[in-house]
Amino acid sequence: MKSEEITLKAFTVVGISVRTTNQNHKSQEDIAKLWESFLLNGVVQSIKNKISNDIYCIYTDYESDYTGEYTTLIGYKVSDTEGIPTNKNLVIKDFPACKYLKYTSEGELPYAVGKTWAHIWQSNTERAYIADFDIYGEEAKDPKNAKITTFLSIK
User: Fold this and answer.
1) CA distance 80 to 62
2) Which of 47, 79, 100, 101 fits as disulfide partner to 151, beta carbons 3.0 to 4.6 Å?
3) How far apart, in whole angstroms, are the C-alpha atoms of residue 52 and residue 127?
4) What does the pLDDT look like over 54-65, one tens digit per residue?
């Protein structure tokens, strides 16, 4: 699977989150519920200062590596946090500038993205475990033929 090394500037995402683990398939259940809440909850979609309508699904705050606990945050990248309500269970999270490997997943959701992550987990890439994320943009709207970009933080 092809990847490209790039450096991204610092950014901020506002959304909702869950603490989970890949052990015993718990993350599949937790993240599915988080997506459901995100898609059905108008609070997140009404966030001010969104840079775009691209949805970020971020894996961060790793306890150790991908086998330990981590936080999944689904939300939007924002230009600033002014005027964002803090009482609606929203999480505001800043991410530092970092080097990433950029992957592109194409095909049916969620299988296309799952295939990318399976490749990542089996690789010997030196991961930074700062923030790994998938971006669901305009090209991800057709679940039968989607294109999703995945970023893996590296050392």
Assistant:
1) 25
2) 100
3) 28
4) 999 999 999 998
A 10 A CB-CB count for 137 gives 15
Q: Are 81 and 27 in contact (CB under 8 A)?
A: no
Taking a C-beta distance cutoff of 8 angstroms, is the pair 90, 83 a contact? no
Q: Which value, to the nearest 10 degrees, does the dihedral of the CA atoms of residues 124, 19, 139, 82 take?
A: -120
Residues with Cβ within 8 Å of residue 24, at least 6 apart in sequence: none
- Listed in sequence order, the residues at least 6 apart from 93 whose beta carbon sits closer than 8 Å to its beta carbon are 12, 13, 14, 17, 58, 60, 73
pLDDT along the chain (155 residues), means of 10: 95 96 91 92 80 96 93 96 80 96 95 93 94 96 95 97
CB environment 86-107: b (16+ within 10 A), e (fewer): eeeebbebebeebebbebebee
Global pTM reads 0.93
What's the CA gap between 150 and 58, in Å, rounded? 10
